[in-house]
Every structure is written in structure tokens, then in C-alpha cells.
Amino acid sequence: MYQNFKQVINESNNIVFFGGAGVSTESGIPDFRSVDGLYNQKYKYPPEIILSHTFFMNNTKEFFEFYREKMIFENVVPNNAHFALAKLEQQGKLKAVITQNIDGLHQKAGSKNVLELHGSIHRNYCTKCGKFFGLEFTQNTKDIPLCTCGGVVKPDVVLYEEALDEDVIKKSVEYIKNAEILIIGGTSLNVYPAAGLIDYYRGNKLILINKSETGADNKADIVIHEPIGKVMEFI
């Protein structure tokens, strides 16, 4: 299976990667839905409620307490999967990384064309005047981060009840439509609308790498149930 995977990658110069939380778990960032994931931990409110637009607006202080503790991870570094994808891009084989992650590790590993479906913790903006702030500002501010104009500084991450960025979606659809090979890695494909993007794939070389089974396993030409860092290191 590994040899077949490597051969398919070697023979193509039009690869697109679509990834989720499982890509970053080997860097020490927990996912959401596994046994040890964020959604199986106990909080005052369910994470789905805390990470919603309504909660952000009505319980801003509590939102940032949770956000700083559970969504920002210091001193994390890219793993073999991130570096392998950056290498494929440098070789001209990989055209885009489409990610549901907000940690910025693909860019840290050297990937240039990264489409972040759910935004990034590294971008923050004032909800009043639009001024931009880096991660450190949100990270190091106590309670609610405020702009000099008095507006609340919000992380540029897509919360529940918020729409995905239309431009990012449009670009992602185009890359997936035109890809010869689509590699899906580290995602259960349960989060919509992001998971629905794979329906735009027109090729016949769908590769799925995930530790557990997904609903798309039967559609894939190659299925590998292993940690993605281990698999990508092979190429």
C-alpha cells in the first residue's frame, strides 16, 4: 500500500491536499472528536457553545478564557506531515494545501499556498475599526483584548454560526476540481460545509489517510489507516 502511494505521488505534478485536525495531533495539538479530544472534556459549557458567535458576543470574557487555554498552543512545531507537504510544493508537485486547522503549522513548515477554511489564530482584528493584531496581542492580554479605539479584538477564526470565507471556499473548490490527485488526511470528514468540498473532485486518484475509518473510505483508491506523519514521511 505504501509503495503504491509513493508511486502515485511520484508520477503526478498536480496534487492537492485537504487536511484536518489529525494533521496536527502529532505536533501535540489535540483534535476535537477522538476519545481525548476537546469535545470529550468537561467544561461549564459544551465547547460547541463556547466556540459560537452568540457566546462570543454575550460571554466575551469567558470565551477568551477558554480560547487562550484550549485553542492556543505555545511552542508547537510542525511534524513530518507538514514538512512533507511543504517539500512536495517546493518540488512543484503540490498545488495547494486546504486545511481546517487554525494553528498555522503548514506555513511554519514552509508551505506557501495554504487555504485556511476556518481562519487562523495568528490573525486578529478589531471588530470596530478593523485594525490588525498578531497572536501575541490576544495571547498576552488579560480578560478581553481591546483595540485603542475601544473595539473588541476578535481572532480571525470561524466560529459556529459564522459563514466560511467565500473567497477561500471558491479557491478551494477550483483547486479540488482541477486536481489530478486529491490527498485527504487527518480528518473524519464530519465537519460541513468543509467536508463537502471533496464532492467537487473529478479525478480518479483519491487517497485517504486517517487513523480511523471515514464515510469516504469506499470512494478512495488508496486508504491508509495510519498516523499521517508516519505515512507522509515515507514519500
Q: How is this structure best described in words?
A:
The longest helix is centred in the last third of the chain and has 13 residues, at about 165-180. The chain is elongated and about 55 Å long. The mean pLDDT is about 90. It has a domain at about 1-30 and about 80-120 and about 165-235: 3-Layer(aba) Sandwich (Rossmann fold). Helix content is about 30%, strand content about 20%. Helix 6 links the parallel strand 2 (about 95-100) and strand 3. It has helices at about 1-10, 45-50, 55-60, 60-70, 80-90, 105-110, 135-140, 165-180, 230-235, and strands at about 15-20, 95-100, 115, 120-125, 130-135, 155, 180-185, 205-210, 220-225. The protein is α/β, with parallel strands linked by helices and about 240 residues long. It has 9 helices and 9 strands. The strands form 2 sheets. A 6-stranded parallel beta sheet has the order 3-2-1-7-8-9, with helices on both faces.
